Amino acid sequence: MTDLAMKTLDLARRFGSILAVDRLSLHVPRGCVYGFLGPNGAGKTTTIRMLLGLIRPDGGEIQLFGEPLTRTTRRGLLRRIGALVEAPSVYPHLTGAENLRVTQELAGMDRTRIAEVLRIVKLERDADRLVQGYSQGMRQRLGIALALLGRPSLLVLDEPTNGLDPAGIHEIRDLIRGFASDHGITVFLSSHLLAEVEQIATHVGILGQGRLLFEGTLEELQRRHADSIEIEVDRPEPAASILREGGLKVERTGGASLTVTVSGRAEVARAASLLVGGGISLYQIRTVRPTLEDLFLDLTREAGIGSAPAGRVSR
Amino acid sequence: MNDLVRATLVECQKLRRTLALRAALLLPLGGVAMTTVVNLTRATRSDFVLDHPNGWETLMLDLTLTLWCFVVLPLFVSLETALLAGIEHRENNWKHLFALPVPRWTIYTAKLLVAFGLVGLTSLELAVGIGLEGMMILKARPDLGLAYPIPWGLIWWRTFSTLPAALLMVAVQTWLAVRWRSFTVPMGVGIGCTAVTIMLLRTLKNAASTPIGPMLASFFPWSLPYVVISPAATAGLRQTAFLVGVLGGLLVSVIGCWDATRRDVT
Q: Given CB atoms, is A109 within the 8 Å cutoff of chain B?
């Protein structure tokens, strides 16, 4: 038995002259939360649609649970996958429970599962209300309930927190965290928000212009991109000289602040003691995490793709 | 086959609280109610023609079924199929349905079967409605010449004989409605083709002088239901319309299903 829930090999898809997905090779281990990151237009949704058999790849191969996804294997493999692609697919004129019953009966799933998934997404009390009266967050939770209905081994969630308020984002994040830890489900989560993914993901794949720029664990990503600290001091010029003499890479951020590249907590302490030893007053030290935009710029530069695709990025 | 049965039952569940179901229930009844009022207020000298059996054929073909097949049915089919497909288009539910472990063809075929079933429901309502209409006329206007017994067999035959001929129209409209997300496309085609139907069917009365019109009417999907019951059409035209409706309907259903199932879901 393979230890990968999903694997793609040189997956490609073109829309006219635009190469949406370019020789994409993903490796999603079983039981992980895999953050599939990229700005809008990077090819995430196209990839997900290919994984679900909604659109056909122009080239390459998809393997789910070690089995290639073909016309003949499609049905059996989809039984083990639950998906929420972009906005939840619901019928507003039906109640929440009726929506679940439609999918349950259509796919011949276990009827008792409806009550279970309603409990998991905390919609039991609103199950008999028409979905047209649901908030965006409730719709999103119903969409996740639909994805969970078939007891999936792999859950594919495409931007599940899109359009949600902070409370809704928090709720969905907690739910996703629980799927992997409590239910052993592999979660493949696409997002354009690094901050969102890094709180729950164990593995990350970063996509830019249809190409995979990075794949690995979150720790590997963080190791690859050294953290920086921003130090606010009383005298920035002498402070910068002291740090440079101490072998640290320093940039003037402007005003009384310096940005110092550090590798680990020990270097933070060393920078602080160098400055204090040099008679510099420290007002503030804070960690600066690279934004997705920073990562993209670095990764695209390394990959020689050129400028990063336009898209919303966030810390 | 179980998949298709399940998909069709699920399609029926989705009809709850929809305009599609309300339209299917109310439009035929509205049509019958309107023709009942017209018949009950007929002038004294405009009796039913004493055809076989005793004016009932005239009652059906003079107004109710003519009005239905000539104008209402083509528009109804366009509306119903657009509404049925709209249930999925509205929230882009195709991506959810086609990502389920269910054969794709069953989802399209179930949609088609429900559309056709709703047309069948309207035939049933028309049959019952025509019977009740006749009973009211017999009570309220015995002077119009309608007579007992009520020929239920003939009523069922006339109303349901339009159904197989409507298959081609249902298949074409379902295909259009599923293919295009915009409500305007199937409705626009439906309205345009209804106008063409009215023009073509008017030529049936002059079949001898303008044979091309009736011939086109026996091939034009939206005019077929009327051609199969029209007293003005020849037996040959009625037979052609029936065969075109059934065989063409099956062919377009297969093509539509093939197209819907192989297309990318974006």
A: no
**Interface contact flag, A89 B6, Cβ < 8 Å:** no
- Search chain A and give the residue with CA nearest B110: A106
Could you read off the pLDDT of B54-73 as tens digits, one per residue?
788 888 887 789 889 988 99
Residue A203 has pLDDT above 90, yes or no: yes
| Disruptive mutation site among A46, A77, A89 for chain B (greatest number of B CBs within 10 Å) | A89
Burial B66-75 (b: 16+ CB within 10 A, else e): bbbbbbbbbb
Interface size between A and B, measured as CB pairs under 8 A: 86
Cα–Cα distance measured from residue B176 to residue B183, given in angstroms and rounded to the nearest whole number? 10
Interhelix angle for B73-89 vs B152-179, to 10°?
40
The nearest CA of chain A is from the CA of B122 a distance in Å of: 23
What lies within 8 Å, CB to CB, of B186 at 6+ separation is: B78, B81, B82, B85, B173, B176, B177, B180
pLDDT tens digits for range A85-104: 988 999 999 999 999 999 99
Residues A210-267 have pLDDT tens digits of 999 999 998 888 777 767 889 999 999 999 999 999 998 888 777 888 989 887 788 8
CB contact under 8 A, A55 and B264: yes
- Residue A282 near chain B (CB below 8 Å): no
Euclidean distance between CA atoms A190 and A195, whole angstroms: 12
pTM of the model: 0.86
